[in-house]
Amino acid sequence: MIDPKQLYVRERLSEVRYEIRGELARRARALEMEGRTLIKLNIGNPGRFGFRAPSHLQHAITDNIDDTDPYSHQQGLPEAREALAEVYRQRRTPHVDGDRIFVGNGVSELIDLCLRALLNPGDEVLIPSPDYPLWSAATILNDGRPVYYRCDPDNDFLPDPSEIETLVSSRTRALVLINPNNPAGAVYPRELLERIVAIAVKHDLLLMVDEIYDQVLYDGAEFVPLAPLAGDHPCITFSGLSKVHRACGWRVGWAILSGQASRVTEYQHAMDLLSALRLCANVPGQYAIKAAVCGPDTITPLCTPGGRLYETRRAVIECCDTSPHLQLSAPGGALYAFPRVVGAAAQGMDDHEFALELMETEGVLVVPGSSFNVPFRDHFRVTLLPEAEVIRDVFARIDRVLARRAAHTSKVVPLKPRSATG
C-alpha cells in the first residue's frame, strides 16, 4: 500500500541515469563508513588527486574579493565576457561579442539552460553514444527525446556522418558533439567535423559542442574548434575552468553563441531570460576567467612526456596492452580512458556487476560503460588523474577480477546436444 504522505516525484526522472555519482558511488560511501579505503576513479575531479588551480587564478579572485558581494549581470561580469570574446575571436569564431556569451555555474547548468531555451515537448536532440550522461538527462528533463548516434569502438569512437543524417527527423532540433570526447578521449578530425556541420546546415539544426577538454591533448592530437567551421550557422560552444584549469569547485563555465545575428536573436533573448531567472552565476569565480584565458598555458606541460597526465595515460595504455583481458582505443584527449573487456572475461559480462565486484573485492570504483548510454556492457571508464604508479596498481587489481571471471567462464562448458538416436 502506498503511504498517503509519500511525495510524488516527476515521472521522467525514471528515465535519467547518472551512475558517475549514482548507486555505486552510494555503495562506496557506505564502505568508507565501514572503514574501507577506496581508490575512486569515477569522477574527473582534479582537486581530489592533488591538483590545484593555477596560482594566478587564485590571486585574481582574492585580489577582487571585496567586489564579489553583489549579484553580477545575469550573463556574467562584462570584463570576463569581453575577455572570452577576444579569445574566441582569435580562434576565428564568427559574430561573437560579450552579448553572445553566458557565464554559468559550470557547463552543466548552461547545458540545461540552453536546452530549456530550445526544446518543446517531443523535440529530438542527436546525442553521441557514448555520451556524457548529463546531455541525455538535460534533454529528457526539458521534455525532449535523446536520439543516439553511434561512436563505434571499432572506429576509435568516431561517428559516421552518414548514419547521423539517417537519424534526422522533422522533430530534430539540435546536434550535440563532445570534442575531445568524454568518456572515450576521441579527438575529431577536421574533415569529420566539416561533414557534421554540413548535416546541421542542411537540416537547420542547432550545433551544441562541448569543448571543455579543448586543451587536454596527447601525442600531437589536434583540436579543431567547431564554431569557425559552422560560420554563419547557429552554434553554441561550451567550456569552462573545471578541467583545463583544474578548478571544478569554482563552478565557472561559459556558453558562446555564434552564427548570423538574424538567426539567433530570438534564441539569445530566451537564454537571457532564463539566465535572469536564476539571477547570476557564482561571482568570485568569474574574476578568474580573464586570468585563465589570457594567462600562461599551465595544462600542456601536464599532457606532454614527463607530465603527470601524460605518464598516467602511458601507464593505462601499457597496462591494457599487456593484459589478456583488456583492449583500449588510446585516448587522444580529455581526462579518461574507456577500456573494453575482451576474451573469456567478457562472456556474459554485466558491467555494473563487474564494477560492484571490483569495488567490493579490490577497493576500486570505476564507472560502468553502459552509464554512458551505449548498447554494449563490456566497457568501463577510469580517470587519468591519479599518479602513474597508482593507476598501475589499479589495473593489477582489475586484472585479478577479470582473471577470476575468465576462469569461471571457462569452467562453464555447455552440454553437447543429444544425437537423434539417443
List the defining traits of the structure above.
422 residues, alpha/beta, Aspartate Aminotransferase, domain 2, 2 domains, 14 helices
Summarize the structure in short.
The protein has 14 helices and 15 strands. The protein has 422 residues and is of the alpha/beta class.
Describe this structure in words.
This protein has 422 residues and is α/β, with parallel strands linked by helices. The protein has 2 domains: 11-51 and 301-409, Aspartate Aminotransferase, domain 1 (Alpha-Beta Complex), CATH 3.90.1150; 55-294, 3-Layer(aba) Sandwich (Aspartate Aminotransferase, domain 2). Helices cover 38% and strands 14% of the residues. It has 14 helices and 15 strands. The strands form 4 sheets. The chain has an 8-stranded mixed β-sheet. A 3-stranded antiparallel β-sheet has the order 11-15-14. Strands 1-13 form a two-stranded parallel sheet. The radius of gyration is 23 Å and the shape is globular. The model is unreliable at 415-422 (pLDDT under 50).
How would the global form be characterised?
Answer: globular
Count the E strands: 15
| pLDDT < 50 stretches | 415-422
Within CATH, the superfamily of the largest domain carries the name Type I PLP-dependent aspartate aminotransferase-like (Major domain)
Strand content: 5-15%
